[in-house]
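<tokenise_the_fold>
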Amino acid sequence: VADCAPRVALTTSETLGMLQLDNQAPAVRDLAWVAVDQCEDADFTLVDRSPADVAFLQYTSGSTSQPRGVIVTHGNLLHNLELIRDGFGLKEAAVGGPVPTTVFWLPAYHDMGLIGGILMPLFIGGTSYLVAPATFLQRPIAWLETIARTGAAISGAPNFAYELCTRKTTPQQRAGLNLSRWTTAFCGAEPIDARTLTTFADEFAPAGFQGKAFYPCYGLAEATLMVSGGKGPSDLRMIHADPSRLAANILADADSPADARTLVSCGRPLGNQDVRVVDPQRFAVCEDGVIGEIWIRGESVASGYWNRPEEDWQTFGGRLVDGGGPYLRTGDLGAFRDGELFVTGRAKDLIIIRGRNLYPQDVERTAQQAHEAVDQGAAFSIVKGGQEHLVIAHQIHREHRRGDMAPVIRAIRAAVVEEHEVDPHAIVLLRPGALPRTSSGKVQRSHCRELFEAGRLDELASSIRSAETFCAASNGREAGAPAEGAVPRPKFLDRLQSYSPELLSAEIQSWMLDWLAERVEVPADELTPTAPL
């Protein structure tokens, strides 16, 4: 409201009665509020519109910055709806024949909820059943029950919704559903986790769900909605990527799937859009298999942000080194392989530790799988002593919130060190529901960083490394130089000849455990000689 300064607010009398306008900010309170269900019949005059006229302002989710109003024109909207129709493999409304039914719970103020859930069904002349977002969050199976009851063929959501349905339903509940008519299950709006989708397909197979119904896709508000996808749903196309090569911005197959990071194809650019992967430093188009920033040009790209001229130039004015453009700079990272787009993460969220690229969603997945008490969270970096250090903040499942958090922290640290070879500077365990999110459910990593640095995260427990625990090389000391406050020389070194091998082994072991106990947040009596370092 403050950003776009509207003159009129449309609502219903029931909602207006709950708003308590006297308690709202002046910008909201002073609007002309109209309850549309109480309007008297009036003459309707069709207003002429051209493709270049503004249809609405579509606000970004705010996952990496403050929400911005994307100016979507009628031309943008109709072009993107046609891309979605063609990508889903649907007939045009004028062709006739049966039109698929859809089910959506996504909020109508979210691009996927408004355009995918409401306007797309209207565009093809179909019917859409809408489930309240709060209903889904309170009881995820309500979404699937509605799909089963209506026989809907099309529905979809961000990755977290599929994960939530798997975690919050029982085998008995799943077996009671009939999802056999769900033929297009799209997934987008956030990084797609192959494990989430394959687990969902396996767990809901007794309900008749088929994995070939999945339709992974890529899009963003600045491109109206959809950018890339398949030609209709199909089996997941995946790459088992080498993590070390990913850290160097190369998309290459791993020697063993067990050591790989699995990436899901988001299909090919739809329609006549020009989609490039660009080196963000050189502004040159990347070769196949090289990771860069995703740039887009086409009729679905919006005309800019509302009243943000500087950000317009930065985001919508991308130019290639040869002068080609302008392109929309998405801020998303990815690579093409054989014409298919693989999205790897957000440039603003990328964590760079000692020259290695870490994707936050990978670290978050490792932390969540480290202990049964760990729920969703955020991984981000902070600058300390001139270097980036890793911070992990995760919610704790409600049923575990009164338990001992020390083993949970140790499990997370051990898993992250083993998987990513980085020792987190801080691990923060949050109370249930305390993780900062956008209105559409995305994790706000940048806001989480701000709260952490301000000491305002709602935490249950935390473990923060002191500066002394970091590598000696980070403070410029020469190799072999004694550290300030270094441990004194072990006394047994002066009496080596008097020890038997067995006794010397015990002395060394005892000294090393004492040394470790001073440097790690584990009680000395819990350290064992056989624990992995």
